Amino acid sequence: MSEAIDTGTEDLLAEVDEGVAVITLNRPDRRNAFSATMLRALGQVLARAETDSAVGALLLTGAGGAFSAGGDVKGFAARAGGGEGGAPADAPGAGGLLAGYDQAVHAQRLDQRRTSAKLYEMPKPTLAALPGPAAGAGLALALACDLRMAASTAFLTTAFANVGFSGDYGGTWFMRRLVGEAKTKEMYFLSERVGADEAARLGLVNWVVAPDELETRSRELARRLAAGPTVAYRYMKENINRAALWELGDCMDLEVTHHIRCSFTEDHREASRAFVEKRPPVFHGR
Q1: Are residues 161 and 244 in the same domain?
Q2: N or C end of the chain: smaller count of CB under 10 Å?
Q3: Which has the closest alpha carbon to 60: 163, 150, 184?
Q4: CATH code at 244?
Q5: How confident is the model at residue 87 (pLDDT cuts 50, 70, 90)?
Q6: Residue 58 in contact with residue 122, Cβ under 8 Å?
Q7: Residue 152: which CATH number?
Q8: pLDDT tens for residues 18-57?
Q9: Within 10 A of 112 (CB to CB), how many other CB atoms are there?
Q10: What is the β-pairing status of strands 20-25 and 57-62?
Q11: pTM confidence score
């Protein structure tokens, strides 16, 4: 039985279903492009999911056959129409523009930390289900998740070069870790579309499934993760994330600390008994 989460906006839908926080970006008329209310709500839902003991895993997807187009380009164009260089026609002098710039930078830094950074750092498995295009900052959100499952009709594109942007929401950092520097530069500089099968070959997505199977398959996988050894998953994720920044010896020291800690959990003892008794283990996250 699922429990709906009040997000405060129709731009984002959320529920807890069998231990999985299912979050749906919901602006299908704009291919789930970001809005301020969507990002604010997403940050709040992720903060709740991180500390909710009823949530063992998180599934992020999009409504209406798309994952997310990222930034709302139509909104950018409307704002840019007011004056040269994107400034409104009645913009204040240089001091006012600089203050507006500083405020915009700070506000987006906070949004990014509450959304893509939270998905990456959250001590629970996160899965993105891509029913269709994931572009720009929408692609960055998908790459911030631990795992990705795409419909065969989905495609990925950085898109930023096409609209004169350099990229945000951590996309360059996430992608470089997955496919390396040269391929990341190619995808950002050229902004070409990458189909689902090619994305799987590159390692940008883990699974490609038929479009009509995506919801069922992604929910099944998310429930499997939610029912798994959540303490061990938390330590696994921290080990892997820190491996990007630490030297080998530091990572090995952290691994053994976490490994021995897991040996004291009820989940480990249950799994050991289940192995001997030749049955599936039942984990409780303790």
Answers
A1: no
A2: N
A3: 150
A4: 1.10.12
A5: very low
A6: yes
A7: 3.90.226.10
A8: 999 999 999 999 999 999 999 999 999 999 999 999 999 9
A9: 19
A10: parallel
A11: 0.87
